[in-house]
Amino acid sequence: MYAQMVKSEAAQDDPEKLAAFQARIDAGEKIEPKDWMPAAYRKTLIRQIGQHAHSEIVGQLPEGNWITRAPTLERKAILLAKVQDEAGHGLYLYCAAETLGVSRDELTEMLLDGRMKYSSIFNYPTLNWSDIGAVGWLVDGAAIINQVPLQRTSFGPYSRAMIRVCKEESFHARQGFDAIRKMAEGTPEQKKMAQDSVNRLWFPALMMFGPSDKESVHSEQSMAWKIKMNTNDELRQKFVDQTVPQIEFLGLDLPDPGIKWNEERGHYDYTDPDWSEFFDVIKGNGPCNTDRLAARNKAWDDGAWVRDGLMAHAKKKAAASVAAE
Amino acid sequence: MTRDEAFLQFLLRMGDNTLILGHRVSEWCGHSPVLEEDIALANTALDLIGQTQFWLGLAGEVQGDGKSADDIAFLRDVWDFRNLLLVEVPNGDFGRTLMRQFLFDAWHSIQLGHLMKSSDERVAAIAEKASKEVAYHLERSADTVVGLGDGTEESHRRMQESLDYLWPYVGEMFQSDEVDAEMVAAGIAPDPASLRDDYDALITRILADATLTIPDSRFGHKGGRTGKMHTEHLGHLLTQMQWLQRAYPGSNW
Ligand SMILES: [Fe+2]
Ligand SMILES: [Fe+2]
Ligand SMILES: [Fe+2]
């Protein structure tokens, strides 16, 4: 989600340094970890990159939900490879965040105790096999629309992480479309599953772009700093315009009766998602928030002895090699 | 038993091991102790499922009635499975999962080393490809077993408990029967019993580094690779794994 819920802080930095910093950004230079940066820039980036990393990690859960039930060996392999990629994305993003002076463990603690968020989409359940196709197609598809512009973001490590991540996300989106296409073109039951997925996941996917810009008070500073490259509404429109013809191609019914081509605007009109539902999900009241966080907390708590054991062993080995010198 | 019948059994044994272990390992997705392990476990499961496609694909070919690897994986019942009991036992904690992986990888790497020289070119080719993946699995599982065995008091205790729990499932890997005799005669696969010395040497070295004690008993449960008596766990695994294929037969996925 990436760009959703980003807030920037009122600047309290030296105005001269700030102006020079802004000039570098305006000139299209990349900011690197060792460079001076405003405290609010750093803080906003930590939040944004951290949330993105957490989303990759929590996002393993709804997809992992179907790994043991994947209907063929090939589908199981594709899904395993995808989930492995997502964990890899989490890893590069945590590394990018670490260059800003926060450790992966600190970020993890903030996820686990609810101080940091992850994408609202992963608080929705995956209920039938077709959801796995729909997640790749719609959710990774929406993520790509959010992330492609971020390849040009001003912070070097984030921009480089996005370039790498976007390549894999496009692959996921194509595979997802292929999976749901099999369903849409399959038996009546399979087609019913595909329709159910699109109906259920459409609005949550639209919410991935965050609330309307009219309500998003902090986006101006982030845009000036090139942490955010487009408004939420622009990106959402792009997603709708790209996805509606794909739904039609699949021969599925549109999930929103408000979808209509608007000749004058040159875009599809659509019904805005229910933002009160979105804010409920963000506050922790989505269908899966409690279970998702509980699963991550359990994994972390149950894994403590493993992390401690491996750390203790590494220390013993290091001590032994020093003693041998 | 004809040579083809024995060959089919042998291929099912190979493919069911990788299928069932791959399934078990994939259950960890999103729940492992640290991100690097999530990645490594997914990667291991992915390799094992890939190997399954080859072994069961060849099994279908040898069987000759048009069954695909998917038909074999998703449409048989418990008594048709030929995997070792070791790979079907539940994951337990992360320590048990990695100990099971190590005990299997050690056997698997030795077995594949022999199969690379198989008189059947198809078997040799699958073994060649799989052995590269399995060398990496073994390196990783051995390192983790050593790290956790020789880590903290708690990690040591848990790893010893895992070894004690899993040890009675090790012996089955080395039990030879008439299928194996036929494979040896055809030069397709080695006699399982002949792998035991190499296996013992390998695991004794690693488990000593891990400061773990190999149990005295040589008692081994059996019944997986012959299909005579699986554990109660396999049926539950299959109900999950096969559900979509069973509930919506004849669909394309
Ligand atoms: Fe991702
Ligand atoms: Fe992402
Ligand atoms: Fe993805």
Q: Describe it for me?
A:
Chain A has helices at 15-26, 39-58, 60-64, 73-98, 104-112, 130-147, 156-184, 188-207, 219-224, 232-249, 275-285, 289-302, 304-324; strands at 260-262, 267-269. Chain A has 325 residues and is mainly alpha-helical. A two-stranded antiparallel sheet of chain A has the order 1-2. In chain A, helix 2 (39-58) runs antiparallel to helix 4 (73-98), helix 6 packs parallel to helix 8 (188-207) and helix 7 (156-184) runs antiparallel to helix 8. Chain A is globular and about 70 Å long. Mean pLDDT of chain A is 94; it is low at 1-11. Chain B is mainly alpha-helical and 253 residues long. Chain B has a single domain, classed as Ferritin, core subunit, four-helix bundle (Ferritin). Chain B contains eleven helices and no strands. Chain B has helices at 3-26, 35-63, 69-74, 85-88, 94-115, 121-149, 153-166, 178-185, 196-209, 233-241, 243-247. The longest helix of chain B has 29 residues, at 35-63. Chain B is globular. The termini of chain B are far apart. Bound molecules: fe (ii) ion (3 copies). Residues 86, 140, 169, 172 of chain A line the site of one fe (ii) ion. Chain A: It comes from Parasedimentitalea denitrificans. Chain A: This is 1,2-phenylacetyl-CoA epoxidase subunit A. Chain A: InterPro entries: Aromatic_CoA_ox/epox, Ferritin-like, Ferritin-like_SF, PaaA, PaaA_PaaC.
If you compute it from the alpha carbons, what radius of gyration of chain B comes out, rounded to the nearest whole angstrom? 18 Å
The quaternary state of the protein chains shown equals: heterodimer
Rg on CA atoms of chain A, Å: 21 Å
- Uncertain residue ranges of chain A: 1-11
CATH superfamily of chain B: Ferritin, core subunit, four-helix bundle
Q: How is the CATH topology of chain B named?
A: Ferritin
- The strand order across the widest sheet of chain A is 1-2
Instruction: Report the bound ligands by name, code or SMILES.
Output: fe (ii) ion
Q: How far apart are the first and last residues' alpha carbons of chain A, in Å?
A: 50 Å
Mean pLDDT metric of chain B: 97
**Helix-strand string of chain B:** HHHHHHHHHHH
Individual helix count of chain A = 13
Principal-axis shape of chain B equals globular
Largest sheet of chain A: 2 strands, antiparallel
> Greatest contact pair?
A-B, 50 and 53 residues
CATH architecture of chain B: Up-down Bundle
Give the number of DSSP strands of chain B. Answer: 0
